[in-house]
Specification:
Largest sheet: none
Radius of gyration: 21 Å
Distance between the termini: 40 Å
Structural class: mainly alpha
Number of strands: 0
Helix content: 55-70%
Strand content: under 5%
Length: about 425
């Protein structure tokens, strides 16, 4: 049997015969996919793009099995097409106003059901499209969202190759992203929208390199309106665009982002949205690395969890670090990669799909740490049992120790070829 055929079978088993609580099977299947991945990207196989599509097609009829987030996506979409502001109400307060509301509330989980939506306006629009085209069928809604995610990945493939060509890099490097098992499973499989965000950011970079800054700004705004993470990357344009054009560039981004929120404006919008986003810094904890070390030091000093304090200090450090890179370093992609790596190293919460942005940037860089992390992040799923959730320190060590080691060696030796 060919490697490609074996990968198809593994993807099928992964999608239709795997429960999140069965970590041993999950790790075995994922290891097999990664082994096939490295064989494929190092081979001279001519149809890698087609293979990437086939792998995604295997997952098309699957209901996501590693994450329940998509139930909140369906909820927000149904809320929006019912002319209800998704930022104004908690799901538990309007359950009777949404079709199959109790079912979706139970499936999305207690945490999501008791918090306002944190998804930006363009993401809400995508959810609404799914709900409009399939208002009463979960699988139909999933198919709509999945189609949009696959189209976004195709866009990354096309324009990623164009950027590689512009930078005089091998166009085939795009397969490091397009065939990566984490990308396929967490985007197409589990319906996370980091890929849609990256497709807009990829287009923004493409037009930036073409010196079409106004068009670039539009696509970067669309990326922010899908996921907020590109906000961290805005300072890195400062040394790349002349002052007058830079002001216009930022003005376009700012005005588009403000305009997108206007249809949702009410007296509680800012409070509800900022409070929900703030939970990721001061309340939620999952799969942290440096943060967990800081938390243990806090326990030792004070005897209690200092997340509320640490979660306010680390963002300040990140802002200063980004400012330092933006004003003292001129390497555009290097700055972004380092900023995101440090941001995620310090974060209180790291879900596997958060790495998608760095996997994309890694396409253009001579770095191994993110490829290794895209494998070891699977150890985070060891925390999920049948009826319990418990993180295990040994798996955190398995995940982060090799990543920190590789990242340190790469950064120390300065052998990364950034553009």
């Amino acid at each position: 049997m060919s490697i490609a055929g074996a990968c198809c079978i593994i993807f099928y088993v992964f999608a239709f015969h795997l429960e999140r609580s069965n970590f041993n099977l999950l790790l075995t299947l994922y290891s097999g996919l990664f082994l096939g991945y490295f064989f494929l990207i190092s081979s001279d196989y001519k149809y890698k793009f087609v293979l990437g599509l086939i792998f995604r097609m295997v997952l098309v009829l699957q209901i996501p099995n590693l994450s329940q987030d998509f139930y909140r996506f369906i909820w927000d979409g149904r809320v929006l097409i019912s002319s209800i502001n998704p930022y104004s109400f908690l799901p538990i307060d309007i359950v009777e106003k949404v079709f199959d509301g109790q079912f979706l509330l139970d499936k999305m989980g207690n945490l999501s059901g008791h918090n306002h939506s944190n998804y930006p306006p363009l993401n809400q629009l995508i959810f609404a499209i799914g709900a409009f085209l399939s208002p009463k069928n979960v699988l139909g809604n999933v198919l709509v969202l999945r189609t949009l995610i696959i189209l976004a990945d195709i866009g990354i493939y096309i324009f990623g190759r164009k950027i590689l060509e512009f930078l005089n890099l091998e166009k085939e490097k795009i397969h490091y992203y397009f065939l990566n098992p984490l990308v396929i499973i967490e985007l197409t499989g589990n319906l996370h929208f980091e890929g849609v965000m990256m497709s807009f950011l990829c287009l923004g970079f493409y037009f930036f390199y073409k010196n079409k800054y106004s068009i670039s700004a539009v696509f970067i705004a669309l990326a922010i309106l899908t996921k907020l993470i590109p906000l961290l990357l805005l300072p890195f344009f400062i040394k790349k665009i002349a002052t007058k054009k830079l002001i216009a560039f930022y003005a376009i981004i700012g005005n588009l982002c403000i305009a997108a929120f206007l249809p949702f404006f009410d007296s509680n919008l800012f409070e509800n949205y900022s409070k929900t986003v703030g939970l990721w810094f001061t309340n939620f904890e999952f799969n942290g690395s440096i943060y967990y070390l800081l938390r243990e030091i806090g326990y030792w000093i004070t005897g209690y969890n200092m997340i509320a304090i640490i979660g306010k200090i680390t963002p300040v450090f990140i802002v200063f670090y980004i400012g330092y890179l933006a004003f003292t370093k001129s390497n555009f992609l290097e700055n972004q990669y380092l900023a995101l790596m440090v941001y995620f190293f310090l974060s209180t919460t790291i879900h596997p799909w958060y790495l998608i942005s760095m996997i994309f940037l890694g396409v253009f860089l001579n770095t191994k740490s993110i490829w290794f992390w895209s494998f070891t992040v699977i150890f985070s799923y060891a925390a999920y049992g049948v009826n319990y959730f418990q993180e295990k320190p040994i798996f955190l060590i398995f995940e982060y120790l090799p990543v920190f080691t590789l990242f340190y060696l790469e950064h120390r030796n300065r052998k990364i070829n950034y553009s």
